[in-house]
């Protein structure tokens, strides 16, 4: 069964902060939120076969906690 859904929102909200997602960072609104999601994956020890990150040495997260 396939139901063509034409009611898809133009911009789904960012799953991290709820802001409208940006096309360049879908489904996130920014690289920051994409990083947040990535961190969650890493911290959760999820293994992604076939993926190698060798440029994760930059920190652009100001600690506002
Ligand atoms: Zn966001």
Automatic annotation (TrEMBL):
<dbReference type="GO" id="GO:0008657">
    <property type="term" value="F:DNA topoisomerase type II (double strand cut, ATP-hydrolyzing) inhibitor activity"/>
</dbReference>
<dbReference type="GO" id="GO:0006355">
    <property type="term" value="P:regulation of DNA-templated transcription"/>
</dbReference>
<protein>
    <recommendedName>
        <fullName>DNA gyrase inhibitor YacG</fullName>
    </recommendedName>
</protein>
<dbReference type="InterPro" id="IPR005584">
    <property type="entry name" value="DNA_gyrase_inhibitor_YacG"/>
</dbReference>
<comment type="subunit">
    <text>Interacts with GyrB.</text>
</comment>
<comment type="function">
    <text>Inhibits all the catalytic activities of DNA gyrase by preventing its interaction with DNA. Acts by binding directly to the C-terminal domain of GyrB, which probably disrupts DNA binding by the gyrase.</text>
</comment>
<dbReference type="Pfam" id="PF03884">
    <property type="entry name" value="YacG"/>
</dbReference>
<dbReference type="GO" id="GO:0008270">
    <property type="term" value="F:zinc ion binding"/>
</dbReference>
<comment type="similarity">
    <text>Belongs to the DNA gyrase inhibitor YacG family.</text>
</comment>
<keyword id="KW-0862">Zinc</keyword>
<keyword id="KW-0479">Metal-binding</keyword>
<feature type="binding site">
    <location>
        <position position="33"/>
    </location>
    <ligand>
        <name>Zn(2+)</name>
    </ligand>
</feature>
<feature type="binding site">
    <location>
        <position position="29"/>
    </location>
    <ligand>
        <name>Zn(2+)</name>
    </ligand>
</feature>
<feature type="binding site">
    <location>
        <position position="14"/>
    </location>
    <ligand>
        <name>Zn(2+)</name>
    </ligand>
</feature>
<feature type="binding site">
    <location>
        <position position="17"/>
    </location>
    <ligand>
        <name>Zn(2+)</name>
    </ligand>
</feature>
<dbReference type="InterPro" id="IPR013088">
    <property type="entry name" value="Znf_NHR/GATA"/>
</dbReference>
């Amino acid at each position: 069964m396939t139901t063509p859904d034409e009611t898809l929102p133009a911009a789904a909200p960012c799953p991290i902060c709820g802001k409208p997602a940006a096309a360049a960072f879908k489904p996130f609104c920014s690289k920051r939120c994409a990083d947040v999601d990535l961190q969650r994956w890493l911290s959760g020890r999820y293994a992604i076969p076939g993926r190698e990150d060798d440029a994760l040495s930059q920190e652009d997260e100001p600690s506002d906690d």
